[in-house]
Amino acid sequence: MTASNYMNRALRSRDPRYVLILSKLGYVVADSSAGTVVKNTPQKQPDSSLTELRKQYHLLTGKNPAKSWNAETLSAKIADAMGG
């Protein structure tokens, strides 16, 4: 038998307010029809080469690169900034 505490009861609840609150705390809905909420896995770290490209772009242009830019886009933007 598992311990019956507040979080366990909240996770079993079908009240959508719990889903909203727990999702803001880092939990995600595993099955939206049942309202089941599970703990979110840690986000994977960005690629170090992408981080280096972002730093290089910032040094060249003085602007922060868009978060949606991938390594290819950043490489092209850096080449344009360098005049080539």
Keywords:
84 residues, mainly alpha, 2 strands, rod-shaped, two-stranded antiparallel sheet
Task: Write up this protein.
By secondary structure, the protein is mainly alpha-helical. The protein is built from four helices and two strands, in the order H-H-E-E-H-H. Strands 1-2 form a two-stranded antiparallel sheet. Helix 3 runs parallel beside helix 4. The chain is rod-shaped. The model has no long low-confidence stretch (mean pLDDT 76).
Shape: rod-shaped
**Rg computed from alpha carbons, rounded to a whole number of angstroms:** 21 Å
Q: Give the integer mean of the pLDDT values.
A: 76
Record the strand order, biggest sheet. 1-2
Helix and strand pattern: HHEEHH
Strand content: 5-15%
Number of beta-strand segments? 2
Structural classification: mainly alpha
Number of helices in the DSSP assignment: 4
Oligomer: single chain
- Low-confidence spans: none
Q: Roughly how much helix do the residues carry, as a percent range?
A: 40-55%
Largest sheet: 2 strands, antiparallel
Query: How widely separated are the two ends?
Result: 67 Å
What is the topological layout?
Elements (H helix, E strand, L loop, with lengths): L5 H7 L3 H9 L2 E5 L4 E4 L8 H14 L9 H11 L3
Antiparallel strand pairs: 1-2
Helix pairs in contact: 3-4
Question: What is this entry, summarized?
Answer:
It is built from four helices and two strands. With 84 residues, it is mainly alpha-helical.
